[in-house]
Each structure stands twice: as structure tokens, then as C-alpha cells.
Design brief:
It is a single chain. With about 725 residues, the protein is α+β, with helices and mostly antiparallel strands. The chain has 3 domains: about 25-240, Glycoside hydrolase, family 65, N-terminal domain (Beta-galactosidase, Chain A, domain 5, Distorted Sandwich), CATH 2.70.98.40; about 250-650, Alpha/alpha barrel (Glycosyltransferase), CATH 1.50.10.10; about 660-715. Strand 8 and strand 9 form a beta hairpin. Helix 14 (about 575-585) packs parallel to helix 17. The longest helix is centred in the middle third of the chain and has 20 residues, at about 450-470.
Amino acid sequence: MTKDDGDPAPIADTTEAAGLERLLALKNADTFLVADSWGDLRSGADGLFESDTRLLSRFVLTAGGVRPSRLSSGVSRDNVYFSCHSTNRPLPPMGGKSTPAGVLHIERRRFLHDRRMFERVRVVNHGISDVLLPLAFGFAADFADIFEVRGTARLARGQQAAPVCDGRRVTFSYRGLDAVERRCCISFSEPPARLGPDHAEFMFSLPKGQKIDLYIEVGEAVDDTPDARRWRLCGVMAQLQMRRRRRSGASVRVPRNPLFNQWLDQSRADVALLTTDLPTGPYPYAGVPWFSTPFGRDGIITAWQMLWLDPALARGVLTYLAGRQATETSAFQDATPGKIMHETRGGEMSALGEVPFGLYYGGVDTTCLFLALAGAYARRSGDLELIRAIWPNLVAAADWMRDSGDSNGDGLIDYARAAETGLSNQGWKDSEDSIFHKDGRFPKGPVALLEVQGYAFAAWQAMADLGRRLDDPRAAEWHERAETLRAQVEDRFWLEKEGFYAIALDGDGVPCEAIASNAGHLLFTGLAHPERAERVSRRLLSGEFRTGWGLRTLARGQARFNPMSYHNGSVWPHDTAMGAAGMAHYGERDAVALLMGEIYSAASHFNMRLPELFCGFERQPGEAPIAYPVACLPQAWAAGSVFLMMQAVLGLRIDAFEQTVTIVSPSLPTGMERLTVTGLQVGEARTDLLFRRIGDQVAVTPRNKVGDLRIVTLR
């Protein structure tokens, strides 16, 4: 972390007139905040949320009865502080004198800590006269469940009590239909001149050259009066927590390339922001605002992206998911014994069963990914102690793959939702229209997705390897299942005329011949035959998929192709990264460097913070990529994408069992001459690595090596 990590990254005030305001997010543990560029909460997804419930739904500052004129705003590089700098518009006459615009500097600075929002409003008078400043806040607390905020209608709600005003504090309370009492308290450091159930009005006398500070705290319980000392102390604690998460594991730097390093820093900060320290260890929540909760698939893939740098994240994910493995059958939850959860929620609607997502298992791929990550984590860390501790969970997951996960007994992992309330599509492309036949028809179930078979192949391989290490006699059976599955996929999914794999098989075993990016995930797992992998790679790198900003989720010209859709032609950074890593698995290192450069170009247009997805229009000279309007930002596996692509382009593999770091045909993106990896820990050993471009080759030099560790470079 550099010394200026706490300074906000300013953004130009180009959106005020159009009303197209950029939402800015903060997160701490299970609390997150979404506000506009002024720091106001006004509508839509805005709000202060705690455990999937919106506490504060409106919080708007005015000066002289109007919104200040914004100068700049942003979130600090370490994702701790939000700041907005603004100035006054002309103030109404007070005592016969009026104050012109632009003489007051109004700064809002806030952070989250210990389930509270802390805010300081500082006003400095730069005018030549004293000023009477009417400052006001309008506020409301609606206690809406996250699914209500997303648009789900409810037949009934709980009882909201009348707000209680007490000097410098307003307390809202709501008793839900789940019999849980929820509260939201707004507390000010100064007593307002007027305090009502939806507003607080202040009148500050501000001599020329002087400043005033107003401290505000908002949370479920605020018993003390806010003050400067607690604001500073809690801010420092929030920074220290974030610094610890950002500095976990090894780091990557590119000398003399500050913009690329900014992307690396922003991505690492976003993973740290979304990571919550649970009793089972760190867990990356999926994204803000809609998915700030543990998701199985997202947590696993993010941990896998970060695995080579920081295996602690994978340990936390595996431990958490093992503790929430299904033990019973529930159609409502889409649960059967051994299955790994898709998501968990903490709001009122989930508790009441109005939605099935309190603990929901409707993800066909999560169980396979859980096993595959366990194998990858063990090889990266050498930590067989954890593997032994969760071995019963791993075996139960393997049994699910063999039994419930293969509903028709054909050897493929498939899905069909068990209840109408569940997700109709249960792979990572889970929108209703994402899986279809060549002519656009939706398939009958159960559906066997291409990439899920790849995950299952990696899962069976992982169980075979771990079983051998733990002397489990079933290891040979698991190995045989992996090879049988490989043959099945090659026989049933391959489309020779297309030179590509079908996206899925329908319930009759008929291929869904849509040409989609899912094949890149199959390459990631190493299932594909090398000759077929080469043909798939060529097509993924063609104009059908490549936009110049990354890979589309669906090839141009396919039925249902729409570059503005959620899954049928948009660009998802994590999807591009997994496809790139899949190509690298088969030696396409230069192609990976090309794709990484394109994703970097996209990131530079998104203030170095990649969104969940963006539109899949072809890149045009001098134009930016087109944003998808409701994408999560930040989003965990989008942030982790750069690190998976970096590992792929460097050709870096780590085997803690063999105490070996192997680097295969390393490459570097165009324009990058040097790259350093520092603090790479393998067991008890540690090393730094320097990658340098020399002619048309990239050389690797180990540095500061400590302990028994072999560095092997292969060409």
C-alpha cells in the first residue's frame, strides 16, 4: 500500500445534467452501502444494507435548501473511504445578506466499520464574509428485503413503528413477519435546530476562514454521541483491516507501468473489499449490490483465480462450504445429500421461505467445482490436514455426483429444477434464455452442460489424486470415472462440422448446437483432446467471439445472440479469463497475452475496476466499451480475472507436494518488458521471481529464495 491509498480517485462531474450518476459502493463484513456520486441515497438500489436488509433507504444532504454543486467524488484506492467534494450554490439571504455560489467547500467523507456508517461533513468558508449556513438532511428507513429492492413484490410486510426523535438521534424500528426486530439509528454530533421523523435541520454560523465538522453515525444501534475521536479511531481500524486482506499472499508488479499496476491494485483491493472474515476463514462475497453474500460458484472461482498468490482464500471457501453441505432432500431448496450450496441469504423473505435462497442448492456446477478446488488447493499448499478434516464432505460430494447429480444414469452431470421457485438454468449462465438449441428452442430437461462435465472431470481427477495420498481404496474408481467422462464428452458433445463443442445435451441426449464460450471452461479443466482444443481456440479467437475488449459469451450470428443481453453475447471478464487460461493449458500463451491486453484496455475505460459484465459490441477506434446498466460493481470474479490471466500468461504452476515452481513458455503482454512476483510462498519456502523480455523470449530469474524449493523453466 502506498502512502496515498486513502486519497479519493476523483471523477469528473459530467453526469449531473443528464442525471446518469455513477453508484459508488462501500462494504465491511455483512454491511454495504450504495450511494450516488454526491454520497446521497435517493432511489433504486441506493441504501445502507445489513444482512440483506436495507436499513437506510434515503439520506440526502442539502445546503440552503438545494443540492450542492459537486466538484469531484470517488472511493479511495484501498476501498475504505468515500469522499465527495462540493461547493454551495447561492444561499438564501440571511439577515439582509446573501452568500454567492462557490465560497464554501463542503466535503463528505465516510466509511463503514463494525456494522455502522461513519460520516464527517466538513464545511470551510473561503469567502470574505461570515456565513449563516442552513444545512439539512432528509432521510428514511424502509427495511426492505434485498429481493424487494430488486423488484420482487410481497403480499404482506411487517409492522414499522413511528420514528423516535431524541435530541440529536432518530431511531427507526421494524418488526418483520419473521418476528425479528430490526432497527436503524441516525445520530449527529450536534443537536439539530429542528429534528423530525424524516429530516434534520442545522443552522451553522461560519466565520470567514473557519470550518465546522459534523459527525454522523448510522447503524442498528448507535448509543454514543458521534465525535471526532471515534471517527478517526474507527477509520484507522477499517484501514488496517483492509490492508491486512490486501497484503495476504504474494504480489505482482510491473516496473515502469503505473497504469497496469493501478489495475492490479484496484483488482486486489476489490477482492479484499468483497472478502469477509467469517468464523471459517476469509470468504469472497460475489458482488455489490445484488450479491453481497456467500455464493458457492463465485466464491470457488474467485478463490481459484487467487490460488497461486494466496491459498488462504481457498481454505476459507472450502471450510465454509463443507459446513453447509446438504444432508437432506428438499425440492424447495433444490437440495439432495452431498450437494454444495449455491447461495445463502439473511433477509426476512429468505427466513420466511418467500424465496428459496436462505440456503439454496440450485447450482449444478458448485459441487464439482468444490472438489476440483480442493484438489487444486492441496497441490498448491500441501495442506493435507484440511483435506483430512473435510474428507467426509469431499466423499459425500463425489457420491452426489455419482448419484443425484446424474439423474438419468448416463454418466453426465445434469440438472432440472425441483420446484418452480428455483432457477430454471443452473450453470453459471443462469438466466432463463441462456441455454438453447441451434434454432433458439429451449431444451427439455434434464440438461447436461458442457462446462459442468469439465468441472466434473477435474473433480474426479482431484478425488483420485487425493484418494491416493490418503490411501483411500476408491481412488482407482474415481480415476476411471474421470477417463470415462472424458470419452463421453468427446463422443457426445463434439460437433465435427462446427469444429466446436455443443453447449449442452438436452433430456433426450440431443446436442444443443449453440456455439458459446462455455467451451473455454472445458479447456480450462484440460478435458479436451489437444487437436480439438486447438480448433476451439482458433474459433474463440476469431471475430465471432473476440470483441477487442474480451470474449463474448455467445458467438456472433447464433440464435438469441444479443450483445446487450446478460448471457447471450455480452463480455464477462471471468469468462474471458477462464477461456484464456484454458487456451494456455494447451500452449496458447501468446493468445492469452493478447486477450489480457484487450481486457486491460477495457479496464482502463472503467476506472481500472472491471464490472461483472459489459456489452459485447465490437471495439471501435476511439470509443470505450459499452457498459451493462445493472452490472455488479465491484464483483469478485471480475476483480480476480487479471490474476488468473497473469498466471496463465506466465505459464506458472506450483506443486507444494514436490516443492516445485514450474514455468512453462512464459510470455508477457505487448508493451510489458518486466514483471516481478514477490513473496511467493510454497510450504515453508519462499521466493521472488523476475520475468524479463529478452528478444522474442521471456526469461525468468529467481530472487531471494529461502528454503527447499526448485524453480524449473520449460520451453
